[in-house]
Structure formats: structure tokens, C-alpha cells
Write a structure and sequence with these properties.
With 544 residues, the protein is an alpha/beta fold. It folds into three domains: 287 residues, no CATH class; 86 residues, no CATH class; 90 residues. The chain contains 23 helices and 15 strands. Strands 6-3-2-12-13 form a five-stranded parallel beta sheet, with helices on both faces.
Length: 544
């Protein structure tokens, strides 16, 4: 099987993404830069250089070198971190929540895109561009990160969960230790992984970096550091107390004008809705785009009648109180989905953010917020997207003439379509002839009847619908009979479906990288880098 690419429209219903990729001019008022523009990088470099308030390069460089040293980073990463202290280094950034065992495959594809794009920008412009991965270690959405899947051909994707989600527990990922549950999860995960010569080293790597005393974010960082060794990927933990004072300008502005950013988001949301798109992020008019971290819990804030309060009203502060707290203990404040990009681009000399469909969508709501904060709006760049196909699955797809777009319709639709395509000629021709005869018969009959009495046309049409329905039922029963007779074909297609479109979703949203490390060794990373074309904004089908 040769690799190939398909348009996103064939695999993902995302109208705004499709417009962004196929008709950027229609969205020009929401995004400042077309990612396909060959001149965009020199312009972004100049915009980053001319910022009113420059990024805190030296402090940031020192902190990131320390963070990545703790994760076991190699000299390539540390040198990239040190280079941020100089005025001629710029950032290609991406990020994701710190999922169990690095989470779904698209996390890996984001990092690969950042690394390859940074290299290309450096080559094309002559400046140094370094890849940065922002770990959402302060996110408290445990249900998003507490599990991992292994996709198998002999059944549904197996889910392994570190612990149940408690919606009242709003600790950040950086404060959540893996705990005693990690031992059984690792044992079960190891049992489910493909058995090969590489699986022992894959499991050993996981066990070394995932212990009861390790936080979810630290385990994520150490695994990413291992997977991307030698690639120069700088990881960022925003919960680091040393970083918090550098974020203070964003937090202070949000406190001093607490609803300005929300008003800008809502204005953009209204324009997007008027253009026919559903806004990705919803905000209530009184929402403040900050969290206050107290007693180990993240508290979302609202602003009413001159007071900042949390959801249940147990916390209430005037602006002056929060500003005093910010001065004394900036670590008590964290950003949300709106202010995360502002914090990141305040800290870094950013050129671009690499995101998936949802992130591209919510950046369309942020142009006004960037203007308020006096920051250049980044190039919003689509991440790479793959479906990985093993040799056995590739043979099934080729045998039955199937592509990834077939599976988006659902497995039953795939089987029905294949059965229709392969239906015995005499049956297929008989059904077609019967439909043609019915149409011709009723067309003639209707002509004769309406000359006799125009009111009879409705009776003829009703009779035609009943006959057509009966023929449709006959075709359905024929397909059912063929399914029973061709169980081998159905079984093969179902096995392929479980691997290329597990749980009715794109593989990259369910499967985890360690399934492929166990099967192919760490060379799988080289394969993915070689298969990724960061300038081709299509979904790629990649044989392994």
C-alpha cells in the first residue's frame, strides 16, 4: 500500500476548518494571516521584533533550561532553550493537555508539525526558530487526561483509566500524582499491547517514567522528552512557580478591565455565527478569563457589581484585593482557554501556533483580544493528521477497494456499499430493471389516469411510493442475505474499521503512540517524521 492524502472534507465534518483551508479570504476578518502565504514568516518576525513590550527572554530561557533538564532533555533541547535569551530566536509553538502516557496520537502529530515547521522557517528566513510545546499542566479537566486506549482488531478499543473523574475535584494536572492506581493500569496496558520484540522496551520506558509519586504532567514531560530525543522540542510547564511572575501583566490587565476580553470574544462569536459558523468557545457576559487557585482547587471567576466571585459565591474580592494577591502570590492565578494564548505569546517571541480543528476554530474568536493586549496575532497553523495502517489492514483495504473516507460513514454503511458494489450481476440488474419498469409503468399510468380525472394522480403517486418502498425492502433483505453469505468479507472490514476508525472516530483521536512503539520500536518516530509534510494540509494515510 502506498501512502496517500485525502481532503479533510472526506474525513471530518468541520465547516470552519474547511473554509479556513479552502477559502481563507472568506475568514480574513477573523484571522490575520493565511498559513499558505509564502511571505508570512518574514512579516511575523518583524511583528515579533517590534512588540511594544518585549518578551522576558533571559528569565524565560533560564527557567526552561531548568525545566527540561529535570525531564532528562538532551543538549539539543537545552541549547534551543538557551538560545531564547538572544534577540534572533523565535518560537513555533503548540500544546496539549498532559494525557496519560501522552494521550491520543494527535498530541504526537502536533509536536512533529512544530519541529518540522520550525526547521523550515529557519531555513527560509535565516533566523533561529525553535519548537515549543506548552503542556496544559494547570488544566483541571481530569476526564480528558485520566485514560488511554489500545486499539485491537479483535474487538473494540480497550480503555484503561487511572481513576474515576470527580467533577468537584478541580486540582490541576500538575498537582495530581499518579498514585497507587498506576501499577495496575500499567500491568493491564502492557497485557493489551501488541506482542513483539519491541514491547518489553516500550513497557520498561513507561514503568521508569510513571510511578505513584509522579504527577501526570511530569510523567507526560518525561515520556515526550524520550520520544522526541534529539529533535530539540522545548517543553513548558506553566505551573512552575518561577514562571508565574512573568505572566503577571496578562493577569493584571484582566483584573483591571475584567470583562473587556469577554466582550471581544462575544463580538467575534456573533460575527462568526452571522457568517454561518458555530463559535467554538462560549462565554457568559460576566465571565472573567482567569482562574483563582485556592485550597488546591481552580475557581472560575465572574464579575458582577464591582466584585469578583467564584461559581458558588464562597469567594468574593474587589479588584484591589486581587491585585494585592497577584503582587504577593502570582502562583494563585491561572489562565483559561481565552487567556492561555495571551500568556503564551506574552512570554514567547511567537510566530505561530499549531493547532487542531477545535483550536483553529477558537482562535477565530481571539483577534480582538490580541489587539487589546497589544500582541501580534500569530499564524494559526494546522497540525499534521494521519491514519496509520499496518500491513495486514492495508491488504484488507486494497482487497476490498476501501479508503478511509468509507469508514467515516459507519461500518454498516461500508459493508452495505461494498455488498452493493459486489452484488451478483443478475440480482443487481434485476433490481435496477424492476425500478426502471416501475417508474416507466407509473409514469404512463399517471398520464392516462389524469386525463380521466386529475384527482386520481394522488392515488397513482401513493401506489408508486408503496411499490418503490417494497422494492427498497427487497433490496435491504437481499443485502442481509448477502451479509450472512459473505461473513468473511464483513469480518475483514470490521477488523479494519477497529484499527483505522476506532470508536467511530479518526484513529488519531483514540489510539496512543505506545501501541506503535510496542509494535515497531522507537523507529516509529522516524517513520512519522518522514511521513509528515507540514505544508500539506490534508489527512494522510500512512502505511507502516
Amino acid at each position: 500500500m502506498n501512502p496517500y492524502a485525502v481532503d479533510y472534507r472526506q474525513v471530518l465534518p468541520a465547516p470552519l476548518l474547511h473554509a479556513y483551508l479552502d477559502d481563507f479570504q472568506s475568514l480574513r476578518s477573523f484571522y490575520a494571516h493565511d498559513p499558505r502565504d509564502p511571505d508570512v514568516w518574514p512579516r511575523m518576525i518583524e511583528a515579533a521584533k517590534s512588540r511594544t513590550t518585549p518578551p522576558p527572554r533571559k528569565a524565560l530561557s533560564r527557567i526552561l533550561e531548568g525545566q527540561n533538564s529535570r525531564y532528562g532533555a538532551d543538549e539539543t533541547v537545552l541549547e534551543n532553550a538557551r538560545s531564547l535569551a538572544g534577540d534572533d530566536t523565535f518560537v513555533v509553538s503548540t500544546g496539549q493537555q498532559t494525557g496519560l502516557f501522552t494521550g491520543p496520537l494527535y498530541t504526537i502529530y502536533k509536536a512533529i508539525t512544530a519541529i518540522k515547521l520550525a526547521s523550515r522557517v529557519s531555513e527560509e528566513t535565516g533566523v533561529r526558530a525553535v519548537p515549543v510545546f506548552w503542556m496544559a499542566a494547570d488544566d483541571h479537566d481530569y476526564a480528558e487526561i485520566n485514560h488511554v486506549h489500545v486499539c485491537r482488531a479483535d474487538g473494540d478499543a480497550l480503555r484503561f483509566e487511572l481513576g474515576p473523574d470527580d467533577p468537584n475535584d478541580r486540582r490541576s494536572a500538575g498537582d495530581r500524582l499518579m498514585g497507587r492506581g498506576i501499577g495496575p493500569v500499567l500491568d493491564q496496558f502492557a497485557e493489551a499491547l501488541p506482542d513483539s520484540e519491541y514491547s518489553p522496551s516500550a513497557i520498561d520506558a513507561l514503568r521508569q517514567r510513571c510511578s505513584a509519586e509522579t504527577s501526570l504532567s511530569d510523567a507526560f514531560a518525561r515520556l515526550m522528552t524520550l520520544l522526541f530525543r534529539g529533535r530539540g522540542l522545548i517543553l513548558v510547564d506553566p505551573t512552575d512557580p518561577a514562571l508565574k511572575p512573568l505572566m503577571r501583566p496578562v493577569f493584571e490587565r484582566e483584573i483591571r478591565d475584567p470583562l473587556a476580553s469577554t466582550r471581544a470574544v462575544l463580538a467575534a462569536s456573533g460575527k462568526l455565527a452571522g457568517a454561518g459558523f458555530d463559535p467554538q468557545v462560549s462565554r457568559s457576559p460576566d465571565a472573567v478569563n482567569l482562574f483563582l487557585y485556592q485550597d488546591g482547587q481552580r475557581n472560575a471567576l465572574s464579575y458582577r457589581n464591582g466584585q469578583f466571585s467564584n461559581r458558588d459565591g464562597s469567594l468574593s474580592y474587589a479588584a484591589g484585593d486581587l491585585l494585592d494577591m497577584l503582587e504577593e502570590a502570582p502562583g494563585q492565578f491561572t489562565h483559561n482557554v481565552i487567556t492561555r494564548p495571551l500568556v503564551q505569546d506574552t512570554l514567547f517571541p511567537s510566530l505561530t501556533y499549531i493547532g487542531g480543528p477545535a483550536e483553529i476554530a477558537y482562535y477565530g474568536q481571539l483577534a480582538g483580544v490580541y489587539r487589546q493586549f497589544g500582541l501580534p496575532f500569530p499564524v494559526v497553523y494546522p497540525r499534521a493528521s494521519h491514519t496509520l495502517v499496518g500491513a495486514r489492514t492495508a491488504r484488507i483495504l486494497e482487497k476490498h477497494g476501501l479508503t478511509i473516507s468509507y469508514f467515516v460513514q459507519g461500518i454498516e454503511a461500508v459493508v452495505d456499499r461494498k455488498l452493493r458494489d459486489d452484488m451478483p450481476v443478475h440480482i443487481a440488474e434485476g433490481l435496477r430493471a424492476a425500478r426502471g419498469d416501475v417508474e416507466a409503468h407509473y409514469r404512463s399510468l399517471k398520464g392516462h389516469m389524469t386525463t380521466l380525472d386529475p384527482g386520481l394522480s394522488r392515488i397513482v403517486e401513493a401506489s408508486e411510493r408503496k411499490t418503490s418502498y417494497a422494492l427498497g425492502r427487497l433490496e435491504e433483505k437481499t443485502l442481509r442475505a448477502l451479509k450472512k453469505a459473505d461473513g468473511v468479507m464483513r469480518g475483514q472490514i470490521m477488523r479494519a474499521d477497529r484499527l483505522v476508525y476506532p470508536n467511530g472516530q479518526l484513529q488519531e483521536r483514540v489510539a496512543n503512540i505506545w501501541q506503535y512503539v510496542a509494535l515497531h520500536g522507537f523507529d516509529i518516530m522516524k517513520t512519522l517524521f518522514e511521513a509528515t509534510d507540514e505544508a500539506d494540509f490534508r489527512h494522510r494515510i500512512t502505511p507502516l
